[in-house]
Amino acid sequence: MKAIKNGGRLTGRQVGFLLVVPGLAVFAAIILYPFADAVLMSFTDRSLLFPTSNWIWFENYVKVFKDPYFVHTLITTGLFVVLATLIPFTLGFIWAILLNQGFKGSELLRGITLVNWIIPGIAIGFLWSWIFNGQYGVLSGMLTSLGILDKGVSWMGQTQTALLCVVIARTWQMLPWYMAFLLGGLQGVSMDQIEAARIDGAGNWQVFTHVVLPEMRSIVTLVLILGTIGNLQHFDLPWTMTEGGPARATTTLSIEVYTTAFKNWDMGKAATVGTIWAILLACFSFVYLRQVNESD
Amino acid sequence: MRMFQKTLGFRIFFWVFLILIGGFVFLPLLWMINTALKPSAETFTLTFFTGTKTLENLKNIVTDATIMGYLRNSLIVSFGSSLMATISPSSATGAASSSWACS
After folding, report:
1. How far apart are CA A186 and CA A169, in angstroms?
2. Three-class secondary structure assignment of A149-218
3. What are the beta bridge partners of residue A205?
4. N or C: which end of chain B has fewer CB within 10 A?
5. How many domains does the structure of chain B reveal?
6. pLDDT tens for each residue of A232-290
7. Which of B63, B64, B27 is nearest to B46 (CA)?
């Protein structure tokens, strides 16, 4: 009995444990419980149409992996994640480089750029579905009056361009976020090193590839991983713009979970897709955590 | 000192992307404001800040009790969730970083 030996006082370890308990309780109640519940649900045939459900082991998983649409959903998700991460990253990086040059009004531009990121996703979805609309859309309207198109094209209504429309809207939404991170990174690059490189005869391109990029390596990796995770989770834009259509062309994992659960009422299958989705996300989170630990 | 020297190549790069990205970022924003200022009959016309302007839409929203109720709900949700995420010890970092990443 250790506690009795030191006069009934708690040891440092015990105090530490007591301090962690409330945090762990909150974590268990609001994160662990729903998560475990969803994973357990993926092994049942629970449906909102029936009051009872049965334990069916891996039947849902077999069903999901045999579903020819599921592979298509995975490909769409992958395509969306890659495009919606790399395009805003590249444009945001260029935009950060321009604003970092410190011309007149660059601070103001930096501030207004962030407005895009503050606008709610739903509003951005409606703004861009309006731009891409076939009958009264701004894009079709402008292209028609320029004589490039004979009549309006429903950009979100055809399978070839629908995903691209969502990616463009997502780019518009996330560009400021990448810009803010990368601008911070650019300002952290040592000017002494750049000056030294210049004296050695380096041009702009060499300064960029040999001094700026290596110094920004950790922030670039971080932003790309966070962007990938964010896009894997993303729901608002594809939902408000196309609801996953046309012909499932914009159905990503998040849309798939939503429609399976709340349109087809198949909670078991939705939980299965959700669990697979969570495993995918966990892989990227693992890479993220390792990166954060490395850069500390 | 600036990070990049103003060579001809950099100047071209600078202006091309200033106009392209600037247009991409700000035109939809301006179009949204432009539409907000149009009378409802002209909503679907392609005029850009040239037609008749009105503050009618704004007035309708500010005086609409239902929408103001939605605004109150949004404020409660956002302040409430930020507060809870900040004071609850373990989930604080998780909640903060996830809202940072996904919004």
Report:
1. 26
2. CCCCCCCCCCHHHHHHHHHHHHHHHHHHHHHHHHHHHHHCCCHHHHHHHHHCCCCHHHHHHHHHHHHCHH
3. none
4. N
5. 1
6. 999 999 999 988 878 888 888 899 889 888 888 888 888 999 999 999 999 988 888 88
7. B27
The tokens describing A273, both together, are: 């897709």
- pLDDT digits over A97-140, tens only? 999 988 888 889 999 999 988 999 999 999 999 888 888 888 88
Q: How far is A79 from chain B (nearest CA, A)?
A: 18
How high is the mean pLDDT of chain A? 87
Residue B3 lies in a domain: no
What's the pLDDT at A169? Answer: 94
What is the mean predicted confidence (pLDDT) over A155-169? Answer: 90
Which residue, among A24, A35, A80, A91, would best test binding to B if mutated, counting the most B CBs under 10 Å from its CB? A91
- Cα gap A125→A30, rounded to integer Å: 29
Has residue B42 been placed in a domain? Answer: yes
Tokens of A129: 């579905």
Which range marks the domain in which residue B19 is found? 8-88
Nearby residues of A191 by Cβ (< 8 Å), 6 or more positions away: B1, B3
Number of neighbouring beta carbons within 10 Å of residue B58: 11
Nearest-by-CA chain A residue for B14: A98
Name A125's Cβ contacts closer than 8 Å, sequence gap at least 6. Answer: A169, A236, A237, A239, A240, A241
Instruction: Report chain A's C-alpha Rg in angstroms.
Output: 25
Does residue A281 sit at the B interface (CB-CB below 8 Å)? no
Predicted confidence (pLDDT) per residue in B2-39, tens digit? 788 888 888 999 999 999 999 999 999 998 888 888 88
Give chain A positions within 8 Å (CB) of B46. Answer: 138, 141-142, 145
* Alpha-carbon distance values, A57 to A22, A43, A65, A268, B33 (Å): 34, 5, 14, 11, 54
CA A10 to chain centre: 45
Residues B85-99: what's their mean pLDDT?
Answer: 54
Q: What are chain A's domains?
A: 60-295 (1.10.3720.10)
